[in-house]
Design a protein that fits this description.
Length: about 190
C-alpha cells in the first residue's frame, strides 16, 4: 500500500498544478520601489488567431493587471508615469510528442532512465514508453506583460504565462487567472487587504 501511495500522491500533485507556466526576467540592479505611477502603451499586435482580439479579452487583461498593480502600491496616471506597461497576447500552433504505453515494464511509475516525458517502470523496456509514437498538435496561449521605464525608455521587467488553450472562450475566461499569475512575477510584492 505504501508503494502505491508513492506513485499516486505525485500524480495527484501534478494534476493539481496550474496548466500555465510562468517565466520572468528583469533588469538587474533596478530598484522597483522607486516606481509610484504607471500607464499603458497600446498593446502589440497579438498574432492571436482572433482569440484575444476583442473588447472582452482586453478588458479582462487590463482590469486584472490594474488591480494587481494597485495592490503593489502603483497608481495609474496619464501624466508622466514612472512605468509604461504593455501586453501582447499570442495563440500559436505547437507540436508535442505522443508516447505509447504498455509492455511488461510499462504501467505507471516514473522511469528514471528516460530523458523525455513518459512514465514506466524498469529500464525503459516495453512497447513504446521511451519513444514517441507520433505527434499531437495543440494550441498554446501566451500572455506577455512588460514594464518600460519612461525616463530611460528601457524595458526593466517582463513576464510571460504560457499554457494550452482548447477554445477561444476557455482562453478568454482564463485570462484573469493567467494575468494574475504573470503579475505575481513582478518584483514588488502585493499588499492584500485582509
Amino acid at each position: 500500500m505504501k508503494r502505491l501511495l508513492l506513485y499516486i500522491v505525485p500524480l495527484m500533485v501534478l494534476a493539481s498544478c496550474s496548466s500555465y507556466r510562468y517565466h520572468t526576467t528583469k533588469m538587474e540592479g533596478t530598484d522597483f520601489s522607486q516606481y509610484r505611477t504607471y500607464s499603458w502603451l497600446p498593446p502589440v499586435d497579438s498574432l492571436s488567431k482572433s482569440y484575444f482580439d476583442n473588447d472582452i479579452a482586453e478588458a479582462n487583461i487590463l482590469e486584472t493587471a490594474n488591480r494587481e498593480l494597485e495592490a503593489r502600491g502603483l497608481t495609474y496616471s496619464k501624466e508622466n508615469p514612472d512605468l509604461l506597461f504593455r501586453y501582447v497576447a499570442i495563440v500559436n500552433n505547437k507540436k508535442r510528442p505522443v508516447y505509447g504505453g504498455g509492455g511488461p515494464w510499462g504501467m505507471w511509475g516514473y522511469n528514471p532512465w528516460m530523458w523525455g516525458p513518459g512514465w514506466g517502470w524498469g529500464f525503459g523496456y516495453g512497447w513504446g514508453w521511451n519513444r514517441p509514437v507520433g505527434e499531437e498538435r495543440y494550441r498554446a496561449g501566451h500572455i506577455i506583460i512588460e514594464a518600460r521605464d519612461r525616463r530611460s525608455n528601457k524595458v526593466v521587467w517582463q513576464a510571460r504565462g504560457s499554457g494550452e488553450v482548447r477554445t477561444p472562450e476557455q482562453a478568454i475566461n482564463k485570462l484573469s487567472e493567467v494575468v494574475t499569475g504573470v503579475m505575481e512575477q513582478f518584483p514588488v510584492e502585493a499588499r492584500r487587504s485582509r
